[in-house]
Amino acid sequence: MTSNQRIVVLGAGHGGKxxxxxxxxxxYEVGLWxxxxxxxxxIKARGGIELESSEHGPSGFGKLALVTDxxxxxxxxxxxxxxxxxxxxxxxxxxxxxxxxxxxxIVVLNPGRTLGAIEFDRVIRKEGCGSDPLIAEAETLIYxxxxxxxxxxxxxxxxxxxxxxxxxxxxxxEVLEALHPIYPQFINGTSVLHTxxxxxxxxxxxxxxxxxxxxxxxxxxxFQFYIEGVTPxxxxxxxxxxxxxxxxxxxxxIRARTALEWxxxxxxxxxxxxxxAIHNQPGYYGIKAPAVLSHRYITEDVPMxxxxxxxxxxxxxxxxxxxxxxxxxxxxxxxxxxxxxGRTMASLGINQxxxxxxxxxxxxGE
Length: 366
Prior knowledge:
By secondary structure, the chain is α/β, with parallel strands linked by helices. The chain folds into two domains: 6-196, Rossmann fold, CATH 3.40.50.720; 201-358, N-(1-d-carboxylethyl)-l-norvaline Dehydrogenase, domain 2 (Orthogonal Bundle), CATH 1.10.1040. It has 17 helices and twelve strands. The protein has helices at 14-25, 41-46, 71-77, 90-97, 116-126, 172-179, 192-197, 201-210, 213-219, 232-251, 259-267, 274-279, 296-299, 301-315, 321-334, 338-341, 355-364, and strands at residues 6-10, 29-33, 48-53, 60-63, 66-68, 80-83, 106-109, 134-138, 143-149, 152-158, 162-167, 186-188. The strands form two sheets. Strands 5-2-1-6-7-8-11-12 form an eight-stranded mixed β-sheet, sandwiched between helices. A four-stranded mixed β-sheet has the order 4-3-10-9. Helix 8 (201-210) runs antiparallel to helix 10 (232-251) and helix 14 (301-315) packs antiparallel against helix 15. The two termini are 39 Å apart.
């Protein structure tokens, strides 16, 4: 397959390098941007990235048309912009990009976590971007991948279905049309509220890390994160957090997937409760816990996933005491205020909106 479409990947971490290499191997003209020049020096010198994949996935040398730390150059290179950075960096990317974004640009956050597209849109507008680029977000990263070296990446698996939505949702089909030849796995995720509230990492990652804090610090993460870390008591906490997330979604008229439904959909893992279903997921066996508590499962997933879910709940009268307890534990352990650092209705400028108004905004852009 060949295409004249030019794509730029913003971010040269685990996901960004895998995506850039894979796109290049699909014969697209691909650019790669990273804010730190030293991190892409070897890629630039070699002219691309060596990609390996498990089983029969894409492998080979992905030749890149552009490798740069200049955001203006990166955005002038392509119309399709794939943002593949931790969601805690979305606002900074938006600030850097605002002056150089054009109406023709389609910007996709891979993934948005919760309310990512709303944050990105708000920041570029505050920075004076009047060109109205099309912003969209994926519910999850399409790859399970890692960086294997300065110019090497590995893909373990590529997801078969990834919901995605544009802001506003009436433009989602435009994004899907542009992406379909590249990633037919993307499907209509209804709205950015749907993609954000079906963010399962928000439920699994922070609580599981925090409730195993002592064990992580004493063993440097030398235990099976899901299999040994999810005891019956820990699973009960996860169930409460999940119930609160689903109830927040319901207050907005959204039928979110439960964690049990998600495990069945993603892995065909079933059980009477969350403890049993997690232990019936063969893919979780062998996954080690984080070695430290200063890990993205807290530093990213608390402010960019749990805080916005809690903020929506607090705004629309839903009890989120369980989620709030996990956020506050994270604040204590990391001696920081994740509510202040995170995405809240107030920081996103949507705290004055009723449910009807918020729905109209994400669906129609009003």
